[in-house]
Amino acid sequence: MATLPLSLSFISILLITFSTNATASKLGKETETHLHFYLHEIFNDTEPSTVLVAQGPNTSNLNTSFGAVLVMDAMLTETPNRNSKLIGKAQGIQLIAPPLLSSQEDRSLLFVVNLVFVQGEFNGSSLAVLGRIPISSPVREMPVIGGTGRFRFARGYVLTQSYEFDIVKGDIIIEYDVHVLHY
Ligand SMILES: *[C@@H]1O[C@H](CO)[C@@H](O)[C@H](O)[C@H]1NC(C)=O
Ligand SMILES: *[C@@H]1O[C@H](CO)[C@@H](O)[C@H](O)[C@H]1NC(C)=O
Ligand SMILES: *[C@@H]1O[C@H](CO)[C@@H](O)[C@H](O)[C@H]1NC(C)=O
Ligand SMILES: *[C@@H]1O[C@H](CO)[C@@H](O)[C@H](O)[C@H]1NC(C)=O
């Protein structure tokens, strides 16, 4: 029991130390950046961008794929051509969520992804995106919840739509429009 007040006072000393060292600074003017690029998802055995890493006991029996966990490392390019200029990578996880209603139509993904940029003024900066992708919607919207580097304090939204969906080849190209406010 004697250690409790001691550790509490240690914490309050730490708090005092931090607060006396704190300095206030003003952020610059907030700017809006619009980024446009294409994400390439490849589902094949040799060079997949996206792989199934885990699933529930019954996922493969369910026509919704509920319980599937996918890991993604996908290229972001300037044009729909995969050999066009590399803008960055999308790295993260996708979880297949259950339908809201009991129809195949409203399946969705939980998308947790870092968009990491490798060109120009945003080289080395990243944006954190966390959102819901309703599979059947032609345009999907996800929030940008933060960022690093030039994108510190970022907030915004992403609109995506399928550009090409070749299920036989396992090639999916998705167009991204990212709108972010940052300093
Ligand atoms: C897998 O996809 C990549 C990119 O499209 C392609 O280069 C490769 O040849 C494909 N492999 C097979 C076995 O289809
Ligand atoms: C698993 O799938 C089978 C076949 O569709 C079904 O009969 C069974 O009830 C399912 N079990 C669970 C726990 O969902
Ligand atoms: C998927 O399974 C549900 C429940 O078993 C069923 O109601 C629905 O019609 C199925 N959808 C498709 C597209 O097979
Ligand atoms: C991006 O930054 C890395 C690390 O600083 C550097 O090696 C690379 O050349 C830069 N790329 C471009 C296109 O500026």
TrEMBL record:
GO terms for biological process, alphabetical: phenylpropanoid biosynthetic process
| Keyword match Signal | yes
What does it do?
Answer: Dirigent proteins impart stereoselectivity on the phenoxy radical-coupling reaction, yielding optically active lignans from two molecules of coniferyl alcohol in the biosynthesis of lignans, flavonolignans, and alkaloids and thus plays a central role in plant secondary metabolism.
Location(s) in or outside the cell? Secreted, Extracellular space, Apoplast
Cellular-component GO terms for this entry: apoplast
Q: Which named protein is this?
A: Dirigent protein
Superkingdom, taxonomy of origin? Eukaryota
The record's keywords, sorted A to Z, are:
Apoplast, Secreted, Signal
Instruction: Cite the record's note on assembly.
Output: Homodimer.
Record-stated family: Belongs to the plant dirigent protein family.
Q: Name one Pfam family in it.
A: Dirigent
Q: Tell me which positions the record assigns to the signal sequence.
A: 1-24
Q: Does the keyword Signal apply?
A: yes
